[in-house]
């Protein structure tokens, strides 16, 4: 049988999926082991145990100076910024995306401006944000919004334009007003696509969050990584990177689950990833 | 039940980018007529239907409904069934059918809740039964066969009791066996409701079987050097009397139409039939 027609069973599939993870960890452990054989004080590739200890220290032992559990403090601060920023972006995407996609006059007025605005590299705006909003939370959230909202608005507007014209005309012949078409046709058709867009936008959102925290902050996952970098504390940095990855993964899965639950019709065709 | 409409088309022309698609179309249709429209691909029959729907507007001439110009945009007095995308994919069968009454009853949200919703759902029970979708009322369109989807589309288009029903190749994507069921459903609904029907079809047999009046769209003039120079118009306007249907052989008439169409041209024959 050709290899393209051979399908792995569920067990084999899970096992195959685990292989690259196990291989990476094994390779790291071996490299770390030999490096520490040469220099027991090596900081670049700390052992899994020392990383575990460092993670435990960050998560469960109160900080000597402030008395805080640093990991949870950082996680809460970062997720709050990320969540607020993405909530604002999502709201903007719905408001402007639907207006631009559904009403030709609004499209004529805003689409060229938006296309231009979305090409500004968001990081270049960061100094402006710090200068105008100060070094507080607002500048960091604003960076996430500026970085993600334009693309999300454009994506949403396109999703509205992709609704088959036939459906919109059908709604008109059923006596719908523009507002009723928005609530009963456009919104439900667009929301599952907006969730997909949100999942994709979380990737740049994390980049903007960590960047903003690295430059000016007193808490947050990005702040911590760039702080302990000064002490070559790879035993903290690596677990933090894994932790951030895990948070991002869980957020992504939660949104997928939400989409499947709330918009079952959208997933009937069977979808991947 | 609902009064059907007298429709009058006067001197209608439609140009796209200066190219004529339809020219000098004149037509008067008595209330309750079942008009079937046939013609070659690209002869403007779907454009004609879209103008009846106000989805597009005539370049010249006018369409009068009971003596008054058509509204400038689609309205509930004209129902429409497209070949596809006719039903709302995010709504179940029952929700698709109650949507129109929800629009009417809830101007702000367009959605009914609680007892209002239950009442609306009860009201469509008979309709569901009639289109044979009672058992499938909770399913989404993606979970229905093509025939079931089109039955839903027809029922949905008739919920508002339109005076004119427009059908744009509604059965084009269906199997022959399913088509026969659809014909029966459509004819019985038309008998009961008495609306004026315009149906575009590629199937000449279907056009003869269903219609009380057959309209053939074709180009009268044809310039081989500039095939786009002239638009199409109604070349045949045949009243079809149901009882005398047997006298007319669709094949003969189809042959006559083809012969009269664009003689000696390599362009596709005006009527495509199996």
Structure description:
The complex is a heterodimer of chains A (273) and B (274). Chain A is an all-alpha fold and 273 residues long. Chain A folds into two domains: 3-45, no CATH class; 58-267, MetI-like (MetI-like fold), CATH 1.10.3720.10. Helix content of chain A is 77%, strand content 0%. Chain A is built from ten helices and no strands. Chain A is globular, with a radius of gyration of 23 Å. Chain A starts with 9 loop residues before the first helix and ends in an 11-residue tail after the last helix. Chain B is of the alpha/beta class. Chain B folds into two domains: 7-77 and 162-261, P-loop containing nucleotide triphosphate hydrolases (Rossmann fold), CATH 3.40.50; 87-149, no CATH class. Chain B is 32% helix and 23% strand. Chain B has helices at 45-52, 93-105, 114-123, 125-130, 146-158, 176-193, 204-210, 250-261; strands at 7-16, 19-29, 34-39, 60-65, 68-69, 78-81, 164-168, 196-200, 213-219, 232-239. Classes of the chains: A mainly alpha (273), B alpha/beta (274). Chains A and B meet through helix 7 and helix 8 of A and strand 6 and helix 2 of B.
